[in-house]
Amino acid sequence: MALENIRLEVMKTIESKVDGFIDQYLIPVDDIWQPTDLLPNLQGEEGLENVKQIREEAKELGYDFWVVLVADMVTEEALPTYESWLMDVEGVDQQRRADGEQNPWSKWVRHWTGEENRHGDALNKYLYLSGRVNMREIEKTTQHLINDGFDIGTGRDPYKNFVYTSFQELATNISHKRVGQLAKKKGNKMLGKMCNIIAGDEMRHYMAYREFVKTIFEHDPSEMMLAFHDMMKKKIVMPAQFLRESGEGIAQAFENFSNAAQRLGVYTTYDYIEILKKLNAYWEIDKMRALTDEAEKARDYLMKLPDRMTRIADRIAIPQDQYTFKWVENNGII
Ligand SMILES: [Fe+2]
Ligand SMILES: [Fe+2]
Fold first, then answer.
1. Measured between alpha carbons, how far is 171 from 48 in angstroms, rounded to an integer?
2. Who has the most CB within 10 Å: 68, 139, 241, 256?
């Protein structure tokens, strides 16, 4: 049987578990938080006072902080790219079944999207109310990013895509959590809480995607190992890899944003390595036996990779020069 067909078989076999994954890792609409729970209630008497408080507190936050918060928000706002990508993965069929029910995998993608959609929404409203950033420039960046799409090197392969999402959900958990901690330290309680609660969603999503991979390992260990190896060898790129400002070329803003995140300690190369170690441990890569020769080599590569990457990271200095973004200029806070 061709490899793709085996992947389809495995996706089909796991399908019966997907409703359980939705129940276990996602939260029903009526029980989950909504962005307005974390923002001033503008229908209420105190709404405008709370907005003033946000604006006052926001003055304490520095340049790199705003750059990172903006880029995190824009990354979340490019959700249409991620949903359409996942809907196209082998085994995810968005047609309803003959009985009118959703295909379990596409139901997962939709429900995951529904949760994710609240992240950009919440951060966008906060940034707008803060008065510290140029919203029009940010909105143009978001539109560009959706226009430009991304290329994460997974193709339509479910195995590679679930490695990617496992990795990314934990990366976003870490970065939102750190931004929240920085905000809290500067007395921005509302923003601190918002980032922290978003980080909580990312953690549940991470736990779900790593479970998908673990389940695939039970069915097709050698191919799953090779897919993991392939993704780590080409490196996990960020979903906002093509980030740009208005009037600038594709991807030009990404590196400057990434440097700001490293300077703040919000997301560093060491976090990347930590994520890899966590995935290796959760999937028990070291204990994996009965692999093909090629998959065994892939396993050995993955086991050695964290140390190898640490040695390289130790030698790389983080650029200290701040780049001026259109998103945050004209605010006198440089
Ligand atoms: Fe998110
Ligand atoms: Fe996420």
1. 35
2. 68
* Domain ranges across the chain: 41-95+102-266
Task: Say how many Å lie between the CA of residue 173 and the centre of ligand 1.
Answer: 8
The answer, yes or no, to whether residue 333 has pLDDT greater than 60, is no
Q: Is the pLDDT of residue 48 over 50?
A: yes
Half-sphere exposure in the Cβ direction for 166 (13 Å, CA):
27
- How far apart are the C-alpha atoms of 131 and 51, rounded to whole Å? 10
User: For this structure, is 4 an active site residue?
Assistant: no
Q: Is 0.85 surpassed by the pTM of this model?
A: yes
Distance from C-alpha of 190 to C-alpha of 57, rounded to nearest angstrom: 9
**Region 41-95+102-266: CATH code:** 1.10.620.20
User: What are 70's two structure tokens?
Assistant: 């903006």
Supply the DSSP symbol for 152.
-
Of the listed ligands, the closest to the CA of 170 is 2
Q: What would the pLDDT profile of 24-35 be if each residue is shown by its tens digit?
A: 999 999 999 999
The single-letter code of the amino acid at 190 is M
Catalytic annotation on 271?
no
- The answer to whether residue 219 is catalytic is no
Are the C-beta atoms of residues 176 and 204 closer than 8 Å to each other?
no
End-to-end CA distance of the chain: give it in Å, rounded: 60
Known binding residue 83? Answer is no
Mean pLDDT of 171-182: 98
116-167 per-position pLDDT tens digit: 999 999 999 999 999 999 999 999 999 999 999 999 999 999 999 999 999 9
pLDDT over 90, % of the chain: 91
pLDDT surpasses 60 at 334: no
Ligand 1 centroid to Cα of residue 29, in Å, is 16
Neighbouring CB atoms inside 10 A of 241's CB total 18
| 30 SS3 class | coil
The answer on whether 116 is annotated among ligand-binding residues is: yes
Count of beta carbons in the 10 Å neighbourhood of residue 252: 14
CA–centroid distance, 118 to ligand 1, in Å, is 8
